[in-house]
Amino acid sequence: QKEIMVDINQAEAISFIDNAHSNGDTVNCKIPVATYDDNFYDSYSFDESDIGNVVEFDTNLRWVDISTYSVFQIMENRIDDAYYMNCDNVSFENIDIWSSDNGFNIDENIAYQYYTDLTEIAHNFGMDVGSFEIDYIDEFGSEADIYDLFDFILD
Known about the structure:
Distance between the termini: 19 Å
Strand order of the largest sheet: 1-2-6-7-8
Number of strands: 8
Helix content: 25-40%
Order of helices and strands: EHEEEEHEHEHHE
Structural class: alpha/beta
Strand content: 15-25%
């Protein structure tokens, strides 16, 4: 049994997930939880006022205002989508908004509460939550808390 990582925005994600399950593999689905991408399937859902600065490490992405309810609903829907696509677990990506020039007043406390709430939603679906952005997690001011938040960390 292997653990497979799938981007939920891939056109062939569902068939890839089904194939992985037929092989007895576990599927971790990547969900960007703090960024906007013109090419993401739900990009039309964002209010322009919730879209912030360009992400330093990927100019195709822009930060979103994770303190708004509308952004939270979009990300909750992404977790719902992952569940209904039969993802076994989710991995949050692009989580380092608090340490970036995001265009909003997002600090560690806001980010921590936001990720806590999203993690609870995933857990309610029976999915574990992880992240593979260990470098950014290490920058979080309250390391013990952020490590406790995720069920797994991928390298």
